[in-house]
Specification:
three-stranded antiparallel β-sheet; alpha+beta
Length: 121
């Protein structure tokens, strides 16, 4: 009887094990590196297949020029990213792949200037 209970315990543990591993895919850490001349005060994400923006990912944080901010628990996906700089200027950068496999995304002056023009239109 004890062997049967132990055997079932092993079978259940093996069945649950892969679920825990897959859940780890949502524990990705992505570095957002600000290589632009402006501080980033707000950062919103939306899956490219979604119409709604999520919450501000920075909260009370600011990504200063040359600084890095880590996003935790972001599911691997292609995102539209809405950035708001120190002057309150907003821009949307489309189709950014964020995933632990691509563990860093750099924001440059060119990115901000190009998307600000596109967003203003």
């Amino acid at each position: 009887m004890r062997k049967s209970v132990l055997l079932w315990g092993v079978v259940i543990a093996m069945a649950v094990g892969p679920v825990v591993v897959r859940a780890g895919a949502y524990d990705s850490v992505v570095d957002i590196v600000n290589q632009s001349s402006w501080e980033i005060h707000q950062l919103y994400l939306s899956s490219t297949s979604d119409e709604e923006w999520g919450p501000d990912q920075l909260g009370e944080h600011v990504i200063g020029t040359g600084d890095t901010f880590q996003l935790h628990g972001i599911p691997c996906d292609d995102y539209d990213v809405r950035l708001v700089d120190e002057d309150g200027d907003a821009c949307v950068v489309g189709g950014v792949t964020l995933c632990a496999d691509a563990d860093a995304w750099e924001i440059t002056d060119e990115d901000l200037l190009a998307c600000q023009v596109d967003t203003d239109e």
